[in-house]
Amino acid sequence: MNVRSAAILLSLSLASPSFAASSQSDPLRFFEGKTESVGTIKIVMKKPFRSRAVGVGQISSDGTLTLVQRIEDEGQLPRERRWKMRKVGPGKYSGTMTEAKGPVTVDEVDGKYRFRFRMEGSVAVEQWLIPAPDGHSAASAVTIRKYGMTVGHSDSVIHKVN
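User: That's the sequence. What structure does it adopt?
Assistant: Structure tokens below.
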């Protein structure tokens, strides 16, 4: 997988959390139903491009979130991304994502959520989701590294769609 794919993937990652105060005990609930993420991705020596992800999430009886996203990156054909995430401890979540190589881990840090995972080609992704006070949106800041060097970043806003 190339760095551009990693950036795209990340900026929209989990069309990520803006966990309403009522959802603080189970932030995965934010992704039930429909979410949308819109942002810009910048990769070193490339022109920035817009990216959009529309997700539909469902939580099973065991508490596992299944999220299916339609990813629409400027200049590319739409594609699908699938997530499966579950709580594994206080403030800790783990799961899978179709474009990740290995597990996706999420840690709650001071009311923010840090996603970390690796992708093909020695690409490491870190995404911070920062819930907004409105309880219906979140800011997402993604850093993409290859061989330890920052090669891209993305900023987006994720919101719950009624």
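The chain has a mean pLDDT of 87.
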